[in-house]
């Protein structure tokens, strides 16, 4: 699994090649490439990013364990076609499945990864951005 800008493999440490997710669009690139970007646009989709980018924790965990990714909320394996596709929580940038988002709509929950509160309004899970690098991992697993 490589960065789409520099083609270097992602790493599981906090060095220059740790995967960084853009929460406004769901794309991920290595820290070195993100740090060198001159504008606030995603290099893949060109969407302007307003939220700060974060480490793609779920991808780092996959690199460390090489185990099939599971939702931190319900422990179900992520899938692409079904109802457990990976979605980004808006406030902390961690990922849970679309089923968990639909189940907890209109409540404040603690993120299963960082325990920070995230308010999930009445929106359907389809309104939440997908974690595209995690989807690619699930597709190829």
UniProtKB/TrEMBL annotation:
Gene3D superfamilies: Zinc/RING finger domain, C3HC4 (zinc finger). SUPFAM superfamilies: RING/U-box (SSF57850). The keyword Zinc-finger applies. One of its GO terms (molecular function) is zinc ion binding. Residues 3-46, 71-114 form the RING-type domain. The keyword Zinc applies. Keywords: Metal-binding, Zinc, Zinc-finger. InterPro entries: E3_ubiquitin-ligase_RING (IPR052667), Znf_RING (IPR001841), Znf_RING/FYVE/PHD (IPR013083), Znf_RING_CS (IPR017907). This is RING-type domain-containing protein.
């Amino acid at each position: 699994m490589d960065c789409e800008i520099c083609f270097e493999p992602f790493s599981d440490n906090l060095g220059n090649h740790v995967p960084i997710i853009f929460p406004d669009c769901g794309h991920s690139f290595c820290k070195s490439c993100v740090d060198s970007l001159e504008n606030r646009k995603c290099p893949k989709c060109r969407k302007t990013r307003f939220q700060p980018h974060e480490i793609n924790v779920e991808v780092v965990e996959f690199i460390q364990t090489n185990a099939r990714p599971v939702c931190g909320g319900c422990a179900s394996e992520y899938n692409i076609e079904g109802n457990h596709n990976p979605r980004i929580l808006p406030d902390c940038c961690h990922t849970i499945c679309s089923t968990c988002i639909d189940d907890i709509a209109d409540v404040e929950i603690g993120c299963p990864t960082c325990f920070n509160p995230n308010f999930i309004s009445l929106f359907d899970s389809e309104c939440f951005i997908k974690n595209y690098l995690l989807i690619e991992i699930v597709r190829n697993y």
